[in-house]
């Protein structure tokens, strides 16, 4: 079955790539400058990375520096900036207090300066990497339990954060619910990024026939962690339209959602899923 074309589905997207520190005010200023740069280059939808406002602090320092969503002023600052610049803005994520832990929360902000939706990272990065320290995100963060869709003027967008990228079912659910664009703000480690970042993002784009927007942290951070960068804009056929490399800056590309329609009509895999039983022979 063919997917019908939509109107007003061409726009410019801008990805912010930055090296956030453990000083919130500095990070806000850095992010603002890059968001303004993206908007000046014509981006109508701008996205920032995971942990835009605070990165590299230990758990105790982080909890002493953050607030509940109701008390936090940083996302409201970016909401006002979105209104001033007349852009849609995805604040890739910030840490907000949620009980005795934090939530890794993404905010979709409108040109009216309003929060449209927010999303809490579902999958916690609890891994042991050879040659690196242990990562136990669940020690400080409480996992989310809801997939989230947002409505943009051009179509629906599905939200995710970083480690979520390794769980294809989430993106399948979002695409089958109508998402034509998928967002993956991230702070991939240099080791895992170099090995898997491009491949995973291209796979999620291809298998769902969707655009992937993945703004990333890059470089050396306060706690000694090194992130991979390479913010990526990928089309529904898996082609890379923009790659931020390993420097702070912005990446801009024109998006045409007719390409989603074309890709899904050519290979209608979203309608072909089967529920099958596993048979184990012993």
In short:
With 282 residues, the chain is an alpha/beta fold.
What descriptors fit this protein?
alpha/beta, 282 residues, 26% helix, globular, six-stranded mixed beta sheet, single chain
Describe this entry's structure for a reader:
Helices cover 26% and strands 29% of the residues. The protein contains 6 helices and 16 strands. A 6-stranded mixed beta sheet has the order 5-4-3-2-1-16. A 6-stranded mixed beta sheet has the order 8-9-10-11-14-15, covered by helices on one side. Strands 6-7 form a two-stranded antiparallel ribbon. The model is unreliable at 1-7 (pLDDT under 50).
Q: State the share of residues found in helices, binned by percent.
A: 25-40%
Q: How many strands, what sense, and barrel or not for the largest sheet?
A: 6 strands, mixed
Number of strands: 16
> C-alpha Rg, in Å?
18 Å
Shape: globular
What is the element string, with H for helices and E for strands? EHEHHEEEEEEEHEHEEEEEEH
Strand order of the largest sheet: 5-4-3-2-1-16
Termini separation: 41 Å
Low-pLDDT regions = 1-7
Annotate the secondary structure layout.
Elements: E1 10-17, H1 24-40, E2 45-47, H2 59-65, H3 74-85, E3 88-98, E4 101-109, E5 115-120, E6 126-128, E7 134-136, E8 148-152, E9 155-159, H4 168-176, E10 179-183, H5 190-208, E11 211-214, E12 218-220, E13 226-228, E14 232-234, E15 240-243, E16 249-256, H6 258-266
Parallel strand pairs: 1-2, 2-3, 9-10, 10-11
Antiparallel strand pairs: 1-16, 3-4, 4-5, 6-7, 8-9, 11-14, 12-13, 14-15
